[in-house]
């Protein structure tokens, strides 16, 4: 049997810096656990624009479609701010998500004990937190038509985006959320704004339909997304799985990131329908962006990207135990007080660069044998 295949797209800014640390982890699994991946690396985002004039070439898109899993660092940066919208770095990422049909974006927010003090909330509010946000990723206002900027007869301009969801788009992401809940604490909270948006009314009805017809054993609640944002910072441990649309999910997951201490800790998995081998099409990426303010300084926290690889082990390669081994290695390193700059606002701890953090995680993996 051939080795499982990975396409690595480091991207821009801190993307290549954190991905270099993931490569150390991948090499470790090959050398020490006999889990060898066929790894190919390619360009995405601004890096691809610089080389090819497009944030994602058709060749790279085809490779992404053919591998077992894609790992992505981050895209974007001020250098590309003035580019035409159609070739902005972010369009490369959005094309990957859309063409691979990665409709379920899993964004876990877990607070490691060692970091309970680092959240902007009180430690007792976040200690032991373990929630899963499931963000719809291929529809809604990100992709709805009509869209664009138009000039009106009086010369003024209007910017248009359309929030649009079909029954099936809602049902399939709802199923992902209910499936996850069954393997966790069996609770789903669905968030929309059914009080002001028709798409929110449909969202609520369809999530309820999937519940009543297919997952009556899972506890389902509904919340308006603005109230959900408030509840997320008031008492986040009330949630198990949250399912929500593309835009609300984008915002709520950044908000949830601060519950864990740093955006540099949050991984994600973007999953589509099963391929012929029964595994989902998948792209794994940290929730954070290219962090232009710290790029090139060895300050980036690689944990989010490394934990995204752990999600790949679990969801794409059926290696749940190895995923747990990697997550424990990260936990042990944090327990030992190793801290990248984003985690240095408190007294104590051993300051670590991006690469020292990667080395410490590899050493903790060694210690796990
Ligand atoms: P960002 O996530 O890049 O940065 C927000 C803040 O968090 C910054 O202060 C940054 O230094 C810090 N931060 C982020 N990741 C960190 C890490 N691993 N370690 C330590 N600190 C970290 O968001 P932004 O500044 O709004 O966006 C910058 C660029 O990234 C934009 O072009 C945006 O479009 C893009 N972006 C890309 C993705 C992605 O590729 N998935 C996600 C979000 C933003
Ligand atoms: C994310 C990012 C992206 C999004 C951008 C970079 C396209 O913010 O992955 O959360 O808005 O989905
Ligand atoms: Mn975002």
Describe the structure in brief.
By secondary structure, the chain is α/β, with parallel strands linked by helices. 40% of the residues lie in helices and 21% in strands. It has helices spanning 15-33, 46-52, 58-66, 89-99, 123-126, 167-182, 198-214, 225-234, 246-257, 303-315, 320-335, 354-367, and strands at 5-11, 38-41, 69-74, 104-110, 130-136, 144-151, 157-162, 187-192, 219-224, 241-244, 269-274, 280-284, 338-339, 350-351.
Taken in chain order, the helices and strands follow as EHEHHEHEHEEEHEHEHEHEEHHEEH
User: What composes the largest sheet?
Assistant: 10 strands, mixed
The CATH H-level homologous superfamily of the largest domain = Isopropylmalate Dehydrogenase
Our count of helices gives 12
What is the gyration radius calculated from CA atoms? 20 Å
- As residue ranges, the low-confidence spans are none
Terminus-to-terminus distance: 26 Å
Mean pLDDT: 96
**Roughly what percent helix?**
40-55%
> What would you call the structural class?
alpha/beta
Strand residue percentage: 15-25%
Physical arrangement of strands within the biggest beta sheet: 2-1-3-12-11-4-5-10-8-9
Hetero groups = nicotinamide-adenine-dinucleotide, 3-isopropylmalic acid, manganese (II) ion
| CATH topology value of the largest domain | Isopropylmalate Dehydrogenase
């Amino acid at each position: 049997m051939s080795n499982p295949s990975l396409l690595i797209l480091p991207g821009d800014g801190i993307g290549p810096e954190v991905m270099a640390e993931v490569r150390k982890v991948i090499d470790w699994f090959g050398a020490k656990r006999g889990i060898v991946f066929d790894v190919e690396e390619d360009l995405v985002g601004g890096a691809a624009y610089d080389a090819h004039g497009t944030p994602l070439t058709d060749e790279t898109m085809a490779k992404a479609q053919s591998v077992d899993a894609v790992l992505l660092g981050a895209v974007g940066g001020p250098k590309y701010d003035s580019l035409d919208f159609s070739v902005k770095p972010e369009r490369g990422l959005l094309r990957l998500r859309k063409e691979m049909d990665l409709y379920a974006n899993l964004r876990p927010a877990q607070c490691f004990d060692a970091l309970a003090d680092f959240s902007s909330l009180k430690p007792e509010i976040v200690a032991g937190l373990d929630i899963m946000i499931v963000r719809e990723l291929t529809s809604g206002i990100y992709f709805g038509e009509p869209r664009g900027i138009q000039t009106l007869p009086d010369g003024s301009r209007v910017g248009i985006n359309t929030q649009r969801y079909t029954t099936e788009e809602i049902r399939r992401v709802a199923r992902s959320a209910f499936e996850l809940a069954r393997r966790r604490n069996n609770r789903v909270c669905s968030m929309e704004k059914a009080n002001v948006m028709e798409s929110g009314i449909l969202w609520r009805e369809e999530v309820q339909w999937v519940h009543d017809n297919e997952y009556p054993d899972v506890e389902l609640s509904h919340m308006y997304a603005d109230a959900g944002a408030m509840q997320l910072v008031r008492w986040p441990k009330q949630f198990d799985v949250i399912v929500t649309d593309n835009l609300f999910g984008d915002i709520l997951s950044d908000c949830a990131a601060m519950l864990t201490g740093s955006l540099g800790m949050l991984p994600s998995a973007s999953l589509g329908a099963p391929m012929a081998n029964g595994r989902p099409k998948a792209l794994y990426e940290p929730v954070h962006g290219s962090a232009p303010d710290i790029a090139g300084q060895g300050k980036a926290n690689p944990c989010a990207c490394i934990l995204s690889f752990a999600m790949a082990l679990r969801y794409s390669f059926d290696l749940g135990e190895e995923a747990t081994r990697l997550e424990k290695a990260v936990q042990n390193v944090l327990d030992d007080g190793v801290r990248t700059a984003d985690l240095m606002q408190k007294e104590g701890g051993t300051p670590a660069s991006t690469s020292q953090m990667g080395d410490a995680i590899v050493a903790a993996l060694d210690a796990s044998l």
